Amino acid sequence: MNLRALGLSEYEEKAYSALIKLGKSAASDISRESGVSYGKIYEVLASLERKGLVRVIPEKTKRFVADDPAKMTQLVDRKEKELDSLREDIKSLKQVYDVHEEEVVHSVKGKKNFYKIIRELKEPKTFKYMIKYTSETHPEWMRKDKALLKKGVDIKVLTRYDKETEKSVDKWLKVNPNIKKTRNTGVAIDIAEEQVIIAMIKSNVILSIKDKSFIEMMKNLFLNMYKNAEKLA
Description:
The chain is 48% helix and 20% strand. By secondary structure, the protein is an alpha+beta fold. Strand 6 (154-159), helix 7 (166-175) and strand 7 form a beta-alpha-beta unit.
């Protein structure tokens, strides 16, 4: 029987279990039966008495008797109330946590964090619009876009197309023909249903924005730009 879940120490559990077996007993007998040293047994028994699990019999030689084990249910009830209270506290903490997690704008720095944000993006269900600066041919990204296109996700891209990027862009065109040319001096943008990612390449700053109105505006601005952009395929 593990009574430590009810707040008893290891020594208290041993002493109480021994006293249940022995019945009314002296401290020396309880120490011997429980394995709790004689130097500690009085302190342990006093603690059990405060918890209502042991009574002292005032005889010539002080003796102790375990109270009815049914009293354990009182400890169980008390522990349940504490756990219920803790559960409510955790709910309150979760609400505070969710508020922070759902901050509309989140900013990080560095290319490593950009890749981390991209990996953690939820898979778009209807559209994914991108403005690319380098058009990196990352194998994982290419596989994901192929899979999304097969699912019917609308993927459109505006990209810088020059001597530095043309080889990469040409590889991407084999995956997705919906790529058009745009002038770009250092910004990468990813627009999907739930958030917009803006990477300012030269400043090394990445913004994640989850505001629905902003997402809708960026979507419309992109589609207008895309409509008037020069085709590559």
